[in-house]
Structures are given as structure tokens and as C-alpha cells.
């Protein structure tokens, strides 16, 4: 029997290579147990030991950011073509830049049930001295804007964002940065979690709307970080608004997930989607994350296990 093949009654070995913090949150005993009951043994990979010394693997899942790991994985994959690699590092890289991540959405052209999906207007600021306010105005960008580090590479710096409220605030961020249109969306972000063909959409707390009045009183820039990880009660007011926020149509969620999965060539990611408060048919993708926090989902254990089973049964059969 060649590596990768499984006979009736045998088990699948799935290796995972993750940072210690991710192992703690994602590899819960409940996931290990559920997978085990469905013939999958999740096995921790030591990235500092050659992979060929840790075989066999039917599949490898991973989220490590070093070039060394990517090289290691590529070499292993060429020598063990029957091991399924989820996902190829060169395709994951596209999500490590806030321009290329959203490019995939721009090409999708999703329009369903009177709703459209697009991305906010944005411009890259790469050198402070070349940065002219006129360039922003020409593009039609107006205050408030949101400044996001161009790199979305998993570092805590890459999550240091700021609201830019007026011209003064344009001096408050380091380059390279993406300056993005801030769209009022009622303080709710929809997070669409994708694992192959499996898709779940949940809502989370987001930044509150910036009213005309707030914009008149606030000046400069307001830094913030990872707001959607806050619990609903952490931000000012509007709990009822959050509870009552209508979910996007399921057909839109599924079409967006399918389209992005194909366009990106990836299996494990989530999409942050907001709905324009002024135009309820206008949805915008603001962020795409590789291998997000699936453990925050209800019943993430069958979600992940079923994804792995689909993959292993299809590719190995
Ligand atoms: N264009 C926008 N208009 C309005 N609000 C936005 C916009 N972009 C981002 N936000 C708000 O800022 C939050 C963080 O933005 P974003 O998701 O891009 O950052 P991130 O650091 O990549 O987050 P994550 O932890 O999801 O990776 C969003 O959840 C949303 O509340
Ligand atoms: O995987 P990491 O630990 O690094 O953290 C990811 C985090 O998942 P966690 O909940 O497991 O922390 C994700 O949360 P949700 O979107 O699911 O809310 C999201 O914030 C990603 O952007 C983070 O990835 P990064 O952008 O930093 O690479
Ligand atoms: Mg986000
Ligand atoms: Mg992100």
C-alpha cells in the first residue's frame, strides 16, 4: 500500500503545524476526541525536525509564517506527493497583503437578490514624502478613513489599525499603510468561516458608526486593535441593535464563500463582511484571514472533522 492510501478499518493521520498559541486555542480535547471517533488522528508536527522523520501523513494543515517552514514543506511535498497539503504556502501569501487579499473579491462580481458584494475604496501609502492629500481626494476618498498596515502577516503590528478623522490624522500611522474608506455599518460584522465546502456565517461586534456630529467633534486619529474579538458588552451601547441585526442572505454567503475558495485556491479562511448602513443591498468585504479562530464557532469539532473527512475520502479514494 502506498503512502496516503487507507484500507477499510484503517485510520487517517493528519499532521498540524501551528504556533503554540494556536495549538492551545484550536487543538481542543473536544476536537481531538471528535476527530478520533471519525478515524482521524490529529498529530502535532515539530517544525524543527525533518518532516520525513515524522511520517506518515495523509494530510498536513498548517499556519506558520517562516520562509524556512515553507521551504521545508515544499521539499517534503515534492518527495511525498500523496500527502495532501492544506494549503500551498504560495497561495496563502496572497492573504498576507491587504491589497492582494481584496483583489480576489473585485474580480468576483457577485450580485444576488438585489445585493452586491464589493470592497471599500482604498489607496496604498508607501512613502510619507510622496504622500499628497490631493491623491486621496482625486480617488474620492473622504474622512473618516481607516488606516491598516499593508502587511497582514500575523504579527501584532499588523492588527494595529487607526481611524483617521481629519487631515491631522494623516500623520499618525507608519507606512506602508492602506487608507480605506470607512463605511458606517451599524456596528456589526459578519464573519464567514470557510473550511472547503463547509461554510458558517456568524455576527460579531464591530466599530460603531461615526455620525456627522462625532466627526465634527473628533479630530486626528484614533488607534484600535482586533475589535471583533471583544465581547458584545465591551463596546458602548447598542446591544439590542447587535442582537437584532439581520444576517446576510444564505445564498449570498454561500456564493461568496464558493467564489473566493475558487479564486484564492484556498480551503481554510474567513471573510469579514459588512453591510452599508445607507444601502442595505451593498455588502463589502473588509478582511480575509487565513486559518482563523474556528474554535470560536459553535460545533467547530464536526465542522473541521467533516471538512477533513470530505477531503481525505475524495483525494485518497
Ligand atoms: N472599511 C471599513 N469600514 C468600517 N469599519 C471597518 C472597515 N474596515 C475595518 N473595519 C472595522 O475594523 C475592524 C478590524 O478591521 P480588519 O478586520 O481589517 O482588521 P484585522 O486586524 O485584519 O482583523 P482580524 O482580527 O479580523 O484579522 C473590523 O472588524 C471592523 O470593525
Ligand atoms: O491564528 P492566529 O492566532 O494568528 O489569529 C487569528 C485569529 O484567530 P484566533 O482566534 O485563533 O486568534 C482570527 O480571529 P477570527 O477572525 O476568527 O475572529 C483573526 O483575528 C486572524 O486575523 C488572526 O490571524 P492573523 O491575522 O494574526 O494571522
Ligand atoms: Mg478582520
Ligand atoms: Mg485580518
TrEMBL record:
Binding residues for ATP: 98, 148, 180-191, 206
Catalytic class of the enzyme: transferase
GO terms (BP aspect): inositol trisphosphate metabolic process
Catalytic activity reported: 1D-myo-inositol 3,4,6-trisphosphate + ATP = 1D-myo-inositol 1,3,4,6-tetrakisphosphate + ADP + H(+); 1D-myo-inositol 1,3,4-trisphosphate + ATP = 1D-myo-inositol 1,3,4,5-tetrakisphosphate + ADP + H(+); 1D-myo-inositol 3,4,5,6-tetrakisphosphate + ATP = 1D-myo-inositol 1,3,4,5,6-pentakisphosphate + ADP + H(+); 1D-myo-inositol 1,3,4-trisphosphate + ATP = 1D-myo-inositol 1,3,4,6-tetrakisphosphate + ADP + H(+)
Cellular component terms per the entry's GO annotation: cytoplasm
Any one Pfam family match given in the protein's UniProt record, by short name: Ins134_P3_kin_N
Residue numbers binding Mg(2+) 2: 287, 289
Description of how the protein assembles with itself and partners: Monomer.
Family the entry assigns: Belongs to the ITPK1 family.
Protein name per UniProt: Inositol-tetrakisphosphate 1-kinase
